[in-house]
Amino acid sequence: MRRRGTTRIAAVLGLLGVLYGCSSGGYLPYAQRALPAAQIDALVAGASHDSHVPPGLVRAVLMAESAGDPSAISRVGAQGLMQLMPATAAACGIDDPFDPTENVECGAGYLHQLLRRFHGNATLAVAAYNAGPGKQSFTNHWAKCIAALTPVLEEVQLQSKAQAHMQRTQSQPHRECPGTTGPNKSVKSWLIIPCD
Q1: Cα-Cα-Cα-Cα dihedral of 63, 69, 71, 74, to 10°?
Q2: Who contacts 42 (Cβ-Cβ below 8 Å, separation ≥6)?
Q3: Is 102 a catalytic residue?
Q4: What sections of the chain are H helices per DSSP?
């Protein structure tokens, strides 16, 4: 389960890189006016705790959206560290969208809503976050497609793992282990038990 979560976070980070890399500004690890890493860590930890969103995900969105610059403004009007649209900031009751604490708290809360909406699928939540509130019907379409394909993809993955395991075990020479032969054989013939 832990490995699956790590893989999911890696996929989200990759998606963020692609989405942000497609914009005209490109990705800068830290902007010239970026907050110190320790301050970003404290903001992320607080927002993550309050919103119940993993800190790695909050930090990834923050860095992809603003590169740590609290004064960042996008060409479409998104503002601050989490690049909140004015309507999103207003819905959170934020007075100053450039206040780092308020901005990150609101962005993490919004991310939490999207994670709930997409049943914990971080990839879809981040895609919806990046698309913004006006374009989420498009994201809903993709969510339905992915939901329909998920069982099929899981089955293909399971079959692939089973085939790889069978190939590994068939390529190994079979030898009987002490105690597995004779009239009281309790091990099925198809099970290969390593002796070492």
Answers
A1: -40
A2: none
A3: no
A4: 2-21, 37-51, 55-66, 86-92, 100-117, 122-131, 136-171
Answering whether pTM is above 0.85, one says: no
Give pLDDT tens digits for 151-194.
666 666 666 667 776 666 666 555 555 554 554 444 444 344 44
Q: Which domains does the chain have, with CATH numbers?
A: 28-146 (1.10.530.10)
State the catalytic residue, choosing from 65, 105, 154, 155. 65
Q: What's the N-to-C CA distance of the chain in angstroms?
A: 28
**DSSP string computed for 121-162:** -HHHHHHHHHH-GGGHHHHHHHHHHHHHHHHHHHHHHHHHHH
CB of 72 closer than 8 Å to CB of 81: yes
If one counts every other C-beta atom within 10 angstroms of the C-beta of residue 58, the result is 25
* Radius of gyration from C-alpha coordinates of the chain: 24
pLDDT for res 185? 46
